# Entry
Amino acid sequence: MAIPRHSPVKAVDEKRKPKHRGHRKRRRVWKDKHFRWVPDGHGDWRVQGYIYTHHHKPKKGHFRGPGKKPTAQALPGAAAGTAAPPPAPAVSDPRPPGAYQGTFGVPQATRLLERAGFGAVGGQAEALVSLGLVGAVQSLTRPSGSAVLSGPAPTDDDGNPLAPADAWGHDHLWWLDRMVRTNQPLVERMALIFHDWFATSLANVSRQQQMIDQSNLFRSHCFGSFLDLFRAVTIDPAMLQWLNGNENYKWAPNENYAREMMELFSLGADRGAYSEDDIREQARALTGWRNDWGDVGAYNFRFDPKWHDTGTKTVFGRSGNWGWEDACQLCVEHPLHPSFFAAKLWSYFVPQPLSNQRQDELTSLYSGSGWQIRPVLEAILMSPDFYESPPMVKPPVVQLAGTLRTLGRHVDTEAWYWLCEEAGQRLFMPPNVSGWDDNRWLDTSRMRARWNIVTYALEGISVDVWGDEYSTTETAEEALARALASWGNPALRQEHRTELLDLARRSESLIVANWQKGPYRAMRQNALLQLIGVSPDAILQ
Amino acid sequence: MSSPKHTCCDGFTRSQLLRSAAAEAGKGLPAIEPGMPDPAGTGLSRRKFLSRSAGLALAVYGASKIPLSAFETGIAQAAQNDKIVVSVFFDGGIDALSVLAPVGDPKYSQLRPNLGFAPGAGPTFSEDTRLQWHPAAGALATLHGEGKVSAFPAIGYDHPDQSHFTSRHYYEIGELQVGYRTGWLGRYLDAVGDDENPLQGLSLDGDLSPMIATAEKPVAAIDSVDGYDLWSRVGDPVEGEMFRSFAKFGTLPSDSPGMAGVRRATYQTDKLRQDLAGVGDFTSPVPYPDTYFAHKLAGLAAYINFGLPLRVVTIRAAGGYDTHADQAADLESNLRETCDAILAFQRDLEQRGLADRVLTELWSEFGRRPEENGSLGTDHGAAGCAFLIGSKAKGEMVGEFPGLGNLDEDENLKVTSDFRAMYCSLLEQWLGHDAETIIPGAAGFARPVLVKP
# Structure
């Protein structure tokens, strides 16, 4: 078997010392309520209030917005939302055989944006509908150029730029910000999937930058060849530390990575795909990687031929002088790998098991393309199961990113990393090498964190009950409409809408004195805002 | 960046990380049942939240009010004489030979040239004068002197496993195998617990202890005894209506497993919020040490006093005990923090007249190697120590100290009592439940007397 050899590693700049940010003097800031125009989800604009943090005392009477309403042209999705209704799908929407053949309307586009991104904002779903199913999917899976991040850059609690490589938690904020501001949401979603797939944790990696570099590797490989990705991860410094690839020498092989690369990354346990002998032999094939240690932790990762076992190894019955690239290729060429790959990728998008027929389709797409990720991904995103399956629980970070996008907020507080940790998903710190357990997203402690995340996200959007003059005449229906508009008019299930309207009415009936008319209505608005954000509709995708 | 501490072994750190992964053991150690609470989190109190968001017009509601109606069901179902087990876990394998140091054993100073204690460094253990309490365990010696501590100087099981992961798992499930998905106290709750009361099994560490993982009955974990509240910017009285609607979200019909999961979590979250409303503001009748662990026990005593329907509670002892290097200082401070807090907890319960309802069990997954290693630490061993503490504890040693002249084939301390025998006795003598239905092979274990009549 001829396996092509690639050059081992790219040079890594490991010499930089971390900047010490611990003793920063806290500067005074001025929090100020500002207003801006944001899309209302119906092709028009609405005014939204938010807290702006000034780092110099604002001049008296300075401008707080919102100014003139933007023109319709500047409005994302305006064309689809107001001007022209989407064309009939059948005309411009040819679909491959086996693909979903039903209506591709706003609900379907919304699901696509939720499961293959971070939700639909301001007319995005309508815009996707106008592309048809195939066009919509491809607009996500075939982005052009590099991602554009629009909107204000992320900051810490003091308004300073993030230090993702150095400050604790800023790595999490850095990625969350990309999720919020990117125009290529599926790239971030796939990076998150591969972060879970090849779950590596900062807990055993010496530098945050190494985790960030690993996530960039996921971004750059997420639509390409799985073999290339697998090889890149195998010698990624974070992974080498995490699963002891850097402690795997010919004199003392360490089987950790060899086992996980088969069990969790490419073949799966209990399928008869490999034996304990295969693991031992594979570990020998992977020997040779080492690094140096210094004040900054692990650095200078390199392949040292003297540390590599050059003897013959027999893996899956195939003998040769295998090296680390062969180790990856042997796994990928294993007859049980394509089915593992298809089922695992499937599980991130569809809550129901892969049927035999669909599995055959996906595995032949995968094998036929030379282990390319994109064709399988596109087939999953176009499959009937994707659109017809019941809802799935959003991972906490996905829900938060979507919440911030919807509310027009951005990363301006460090609270997001510890709140996400409480919700069970601190990025770069999955609980173990098998990644996050989707069955454990919801319990009393994590649910409470999701609630509190929404409370934080509504800062500046909730009404100041005792500070602002609130309408004394707003009806229950108006109150609900206003709260829903703040959330971009999400499609709530009827029973939830009914309950919220009932809440609005019950709240109004509590008013027994004149002075309560405004404040109780303000409270009602905040209650509605909160409940929309924590409703099952917001948690499910 | 966190500064990784290198005093514990890599395997330990990793096995902690691998709790639910199939990876290390390769046998698929069980995750907690899907849908059962298994929370994570580091615990941010409301106070901290307020300080973090200074200037935010937060309506802090419920802190001074206790909606008694919310407790009616719970109090009613928790008969006032319900027995409680508090399980305190020394995570990492505490060095039993330091907690009860065999200073009178001729081989001790030979095996522990650097880590050994001098005779008289701590109080003598009255039931076996070869042994002496660790100086930092003086609080346990005090309680032992009052007849409130049953000591197990060499507890474990046959053919001890020296993996943290595996051995701890055995203790948690009450059986020597890896196929179980429920903890031994979880199975007890499944047998006697309530369908509506998640507080019957409560972990105070943020994540659920597998020991109380149940198959059916709800249990809970909280990350802070300072209350379990949901923050909002809604004031009284509208807030009450908001939570009514939130609870309604949790009880509407579901048409998919995903929806059912969200509804169940929503319902349980609101229930816990009601049950714990206002509980965070407690006062203690006795002084506690000013430590995080002590604060949790102080909160727990207040919870019990409050009438919360608790049955089994788990908490991790202060610090970690996987002392492969520089053992002396780490063990000293962590053990002291734990023991002092437990003494305060016992005094608190006595002061409140609750001491007859609570037994506290201290355990660890194994003991450490009698011979110290080259890094002023100790490696994984076999027999460990356990203690049962409370006014109703029998106060008599279970299993003798086997001596250092008679170690097992791995040069480890031999086991003289089986942890499953302790479980059987606890179930039958304290909780009044037949051990046969909870502990596999219960008939084959002795029943040491652990409880005063």
In short: Chain B touches chain A through 74 residues (CB under 8 Å). Residues 47 and 281 of chain B are 11 Å apart (CA to CA).
